[in-house]
Specification:
- With 139 residues, the protein is α+β, with helices and mostly antiparallel strands.
- It has one domain: 3-Layer(aba) Sandwich (Endonuclease, Chain A), CATH 3.40.960.10.
- Helix content is 53%, strand content 12%.
- The protein has a four-stranded mixed sheet with strand order 1-2-3-4, sandwiched between helices.
- Helix 2 crosses helix 7.
């Protein structure tokens, strides 16, 4: 399948992708905030810069989009048709980095929660409940 965009259109599309305050982050944050749960967002002082961090409870939450973090990578990898030599190593490095971040945080005593974007979009209430349970366990 060929790319339907010119290189300039593709560049503009890629530049518009956000690293913070994504729709999935906002949805989960709003759900937590409505329940009176307060957090630090994009916390630079925590390894891996989690999307949400609960410093006193040592809970780190990541909201991972399916494309960038390699959801169902064994199957999805084959669907990449253009610029494969760039995208496949990039996404595989993201997957590896996520594992490294998880291991480092866990070794430092953190609880790490990762949610796929589709999980948050489908049931933000359930995701928020998982966060709340982790916070209660880490009292």
């Amino acid at each position: 399948m060929a790319d339907n965009h010119t290189p300039e259109q593709r560049r503009k599309n890629m530049q518009a992708i956000r690293g913070k305050d994504t729709s999935i982050e906002l949805k989960l944050r709003n759900e937590l905030w409505s329940r009176g749960i307060h957090y630090r967002k994009n916390c630079k002082q925590v390894y891996g810069h989690p999307d949400l961090a609960f410093l006193g409870k040592k809970v780190a939450v990541f909201c991972d989009s399916e494309f960038w973090h390699g959801y169902d990578w064994a199957n999805r990898k084959e669907s990449i048709r253009t610029n494969r030599e760039y995208w496949i190593p990039k996404i595989e490095r993201n997957i590896e980095r996520d594992k490294e971040v998880n291991e480092k945080l866990r070794s430092d005593g953190w609880t790490v929660l990762r949610f796929w974007g589709r999980e948050i979009q489908k049931d933000a209430e359930r995701c928020a409940q998982i966060v709340i349970l982790a916070l209660e366990r880490n009292k």
